Amino acid sequence: MEKMRIRKFFNKLIKEEHPRFEKAASEDDLLKEKQIDSSLANTLEIFKKIYYVPNNSDVSIRNIVIGGINKEAAVLTINSISDTKLIEDLVIRPLLINDDESKEIELLLSPQVRKAHEIEDILKEINSGNTTLFVDGEPNAYIINTGNFQGRSVEKAENEVVVKGPKESFNEQAMTNISLIRKRIRDEKLIVESTTISKRAKNELYLLYIKDIANEEILTNIKSKLNSLNVDSIQNLSVLEEYIEDNIYSIFPTILYTERPDRASEFIEDGFIVLIMDNSPDVLILPATFWSFFHNAEDHYLRFLFGNFIRILRLMALFITLFISAIYIAITNYHVEMIPADLLLAISSTREIVPFPPLVEILMLEIAFELIREGGLRVPKPIGPTIGIVGALILGQAAVQANLVSPLVVIIVALGGLSSFAIGDPNLNYTVRLLRFPFLISAGVFGLYGLTALFTFGLFYMTSIKSFGVPYLAPMTPNDSTSKDTIFRKLLKNEIFRPGYLKPKDIEKKAGE
Amino acid sequence: MDHTKGMLGIREFFAIILVTIGTKLTDNTPTGLFNEVGNAAWITIIIMCLVSIIPIYLLTKVITSYENKNLVDIIYHLLGKHIGFFVILLLWLTETYSIVLSSAMYADIIETMYFVRTPILIIYIVLIGVAAYGAKKGIEYIGSAAWITLIGLNIALFVVLILSILQGRINYIFPIFGNGIPEILTEGTTNLSIFGEFLYFGFIVTSLRSINVYKKGIWIGLFYVSIVFMFALIGYVMLFDYVSIGNLNYPFHESIRYIQLGFLTNVESLFLPFWLVASFLRFSFYLYISALLFGALFKIKQFNYLVPSIAILIVFLGLIPEAPVFSLFNLREILVYITAPIFLLLPLVLWIAAKLKGEFKK
């Protein structure tokens, strides 16, 4: 309360008067609510006005006369998002060549034809690439599915690579993505619910869940969050993620983001809810726990021992990335006695010529590493390898030779940096990379004491995070006896329960027995 | 949609018990025992454990006969408004006194053993600050954090114990009864305050998933802690012998300085983080209980908002004693003699009151 008041006070102090803009397109909004009337000329006038027809070059209106019944008609479509050949075959040709006077228009067209008379509905169809046929003397329009958006085909997963297991990944078309999931879950209870989440761009969002497994409470929670959105446009899931997150400022991600249909299906079958949108080569899975970020699709594809082996490796990588440079700082600054004498001499001899304190040295190199990584990511492909060579070889070597950093520090930072790549999830990856810096600083200020203090602080924080009501570290704590897939995976035959923290309607994975 | 509704399960409860009482073997509690009974200190722990069974049994009996009531409600219910208030005030005072003492001691340990050049004020602020953050968050998060770290803490502790027993001398534990059986018996009962915290677990009983969690947790906790404590005391005496150990204020930290782990000759910094995590958790729990009791005294429902103020108070009080190594030791003696009777008598009084009121017949 007090915080809010203070913030309001300061906001008042620094507030500037912004000119208020008149809301545009109010006339259009009024038009949209109307229905079309039976006069073709009138209708066309309205649509030309809405689409600014002569200026809007890919909106085409084609006037025809329907053969047989001799009625005037017009076909309205947006060329760039519809299949012209399909329109020709399904709409225009059958109408033109008809010679039966008694035949109804609906029968002339393809079987998937629908009628609509609200202008708003018709606009939605046209904007989705469908073709609209207006006929003189009829107060409704015929809609024929001809949408054809351009996109890429199903390709290999690029970010979540596995050696053993399926390689398909989602692409930018929601329907393809849903089909990829349906291919894996042939269950009539798999529901694909669609809602419109933005006001102007009318972005469509699909919620996927299994009706008799997913928990209703979580579902209503998510739906109410989605319905409360009031924005003009949400282009894709990456943007949506921020709108529906619980803790926007938190360093820990609370919604899982995956490009693998097999992973998404696995989560759906466990009672999670998946969000799919056009233009997103991935899906959002919620609620997400820490473990879902930590896990990888391959853990379950590899044999039991090997799967757990890579889990251990990943855990080690997590700790190495977080702590190795901080521990180096802590030990060299505060706990020198811990290092065996020979190693200590080796370290001090390499550090002798470096003019900076260890903290500065490590920070410099860590930042350089982050820069190389960010640069390498954004660099256009043809120059990519050059950056790699310059960054890794020349920079590191030259820095050592120029006495800017000691070789040991290069090893430590490189080890930490490499380990961070073992954490596959992009969100958790950023979390870990960012967290390194506070740990570094705390180790620089207080040695192992500061490091531990920050760690405990973070632990308290982590246990208190909730993702859509689910504790972040469940099922490890609060403990849940149903699923034990946390650090290590269990034998598949022993994983007989769905995660209990989701309160699924059907907790057991096996039916009967 | 929280599956557990923020309730502690048996694991979290067990972890809290271990962290709060188990960490005592790392401060100067063992020194007091060694001073009085020599190398038989580990036997006193057995005596203590056995004696503690009575009050804990009575307390559990009283608590389990009520549903959805924690010890505060029960005390008010059984002893009436005024006496209840007085009893809780007494508990709050001893509890807060013990936080001040032990936190000052822990800050002193950190300063004297590891960070000699860092001002104690800063160490103290960090220690209580982190603990206060956890306490402010609530008991379920303290429990969760304790459970997550419990495996690490236990492994670290057992490595220390095994190493000190391996590197110690077996004949240091003889004569097995140290200064004699009478000393063991008297010290065993007067030093009961080591297990005095078991009283506090009654206050969080409404935060547990079920009463069974309390019943099971408290017994498993008591026996586990006693066993660990016993082995720790054996380990210390095997490393240092009983004369010198009486002069060591913080035997655990001296032990981890003394032992070697393969090619690593100085391993104390290796174990420091684990001990620190346990300490942070311990003070989180203490602060939480202190705020809970204060809230119970003055009818403050959202007592977690009290934590920051109590934390600041504790830092200032804890900084008062000069030469903490000596003063804290003596101040702790007073605490020991106050807490032991409370721990022994309060459950008995509650049990008699409950019996008279006929609560057990229901």
Written description of the protein model:
- The complex is a heterodimer of chains A (513) and B (362).
- Helices cover 47% and strands 11% of the residues of chain A.
- Chain A is of the alpha+beta class.
- Chain A folds into 3 domains: 26-144, no CATH class; 174-288, no CATH class; 303-470, no CATH class.
- In chain A, α13 (304-334) packs antiparallel against α17 (407-420).
- The two termini of chain A are 55 Å apart.
- The model of chain A has no long low-confidence stretch (mean pLDDT 86).
- With 362 residues, chain B is mostly helical.
- Chain B has a single domain (10-346), classed as Up-down Bundle (Amino acid/polyamine transporter I), CATH 1.20.1740.10.
- Chain B has 12 helices and no strands.
- Chain B has helices at 10-22, 29-37, 41-64, 71-114, 120-137, 139-167, 181-190, 211-247, 251-258, 268-297, 307-318, 324-357.
- The longest helix of chain B has 44 residues, at 71-114.
- Chain B is globular and about 60 Å long.
- Chain B starts with 9 loop residues before the first helix and ends in a 5-residue tail after the last helix.
- The mean pLDDT of chain B is 88.
- Classes of the chains: A alpha+beta (513), B mainly alpha (362).
- At the A-B interface, α8, α18 and β12 of A face α1, α5, α6 and α10 of B.
Spell out the key features of this protein.
heterodimer, A: 513 residues, alpha+beta, 3 domains, five-stranded antiparallel beta sheet, 18 helices, 47% helix, 11% strand, B: 362 residues, mainly alpha, Amino acid/polyamine transporter I, 12 helices, 74% helix, 0% strand, transmembrane (chain A)
